[in-house]
């Protein structure tokens, strides 16, 4: 379903990664702070231009240095949730969610408003402004807004990083509900093994700008049990 082959010089870091997935499900990008995970996600979303490589989604090139293709973010059909929700503060939760829907090209919508609201438990929040939401609630709305644009790939960049333990559990619970009900691939950036065990189907290890291993969830669990995959620390 997607292929990412990316090369970019980022200051001291020479980033060169390749990974792919041919089914829905959650691919975790796991690695320490500074490994290049956020940079990879930015290139998939079209926010940063690679020096070279190819990004392919459902057989279509979003970026290809060989042919000069580089679709802008709004043409990629890629949803992106950042560490902090980045909701529109002046709009209600309902209007934030509707904004996501309006980004969908005609005939391409797969996400249903009522269903997304139900899956993420957003009904009681619909009339509120983001300023009156907890961190966990904000993240749930941000995930809902991204889904309602009916993306073909969803990028979640450490969506729990800014939350306390209780809020983390809350959002993790809702992400767990989404998992398995989505027909699109999801890329989940984290350096927390517990999140990966709870959500991922496959794990791509990134260190110092390189893919150092590709694991099934089972293999990742075994690594963890053997003490080979540590919480990587840092933000
Ligand atoms: N535009 C840029 N110019 C120069 N260096 C950059 C640029 N963007 C990122 N870097 C560097 O590239 C490295 C990778 O950063 P990146 O944010 O992708 O890592 P990360 O794995 O997501 O880390 P974290 O978990 O802390 O977010 C860092 O050393 C960063 O300083």
UniProtKB/TrEMBL annotation:
Residue ranges of every copy of the ABC transporter domain listed in the record: 1-233
Which residue ranges does UniProt annotate as crossing the membrane? none
- Keyword flag Aminoacyl-tRNA synthetase: no
Q: Which domain of life is it from?
A: Bacteria
**InterPro entries, A to Z:** AAA+_ATPase, ABC_transporter-like_ATP-bd, ABC_transporter-like_CS, ModC_ABC_ATP-bd, Molybdenum_import_ModC, P-loop_NTPase
Keywords on record: ATP-binding, Nucleotide-binding
- What is the designated name of this protein? Molybdate ABC transporter, ATPase subunit
Entry-linked PROSITE patterns: ABC_TRANSPORTER_1, ABC_TRANSPORTER_2
GO CC aspect terms = membrane
* Molecular function per GO: ABC-type transporter activity; ATP binding; ATP hydrolysis activity; molybdate ion transmembrane transporter activity
């Amino acid at each position: 379903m997607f292929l990412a082959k990316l090369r970019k010089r980022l200051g001291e870091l020479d980033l060169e990664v390749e990974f792919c997935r041919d089914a829905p499900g959650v691919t975790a990008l796991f690695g320490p702070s500074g490994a290049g995970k956020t940079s990879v996600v930015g290139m998939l979303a079209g926010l940063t231009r690679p020096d070279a490589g190819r990004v392919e989604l459902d057989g279509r090139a979003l970026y290809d240095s060989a042919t000069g293709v580089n679709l802008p973010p709004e043409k990629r059909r890629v949803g992106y949730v950042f560490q902090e929700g980045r909701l529109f503060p002046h709009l209600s939760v309902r209007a934030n969610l509707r904004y996501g829907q309006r980004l969908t090209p005609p005939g391409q919508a797969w996400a249903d408003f009522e269903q997304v609201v139900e899956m993420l438990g957003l009904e009681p929040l619909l009339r509120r402004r983001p300023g009156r939401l907890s961190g966990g609630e904000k993240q749930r709305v941000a995930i809902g807004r991204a889904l309602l644009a009916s993306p073909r790939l969803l990028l979640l960049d450490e969506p729990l990083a800014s939350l306390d333990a209780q809020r983390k559990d809350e959002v993790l619970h809702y992400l767990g509900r989404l998992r398995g009900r989505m027909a699109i691939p999801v890329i989940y950036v984290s350096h927390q093994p517990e999140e990966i065990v709870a959500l991922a189907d496959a794990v791509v290890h990134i260190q110092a700008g390189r893919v150092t291993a590709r694991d099934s969830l089972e293999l990742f669990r075994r690594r963890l049990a053997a003490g080979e995959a540590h919480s990587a620390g840092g933000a």
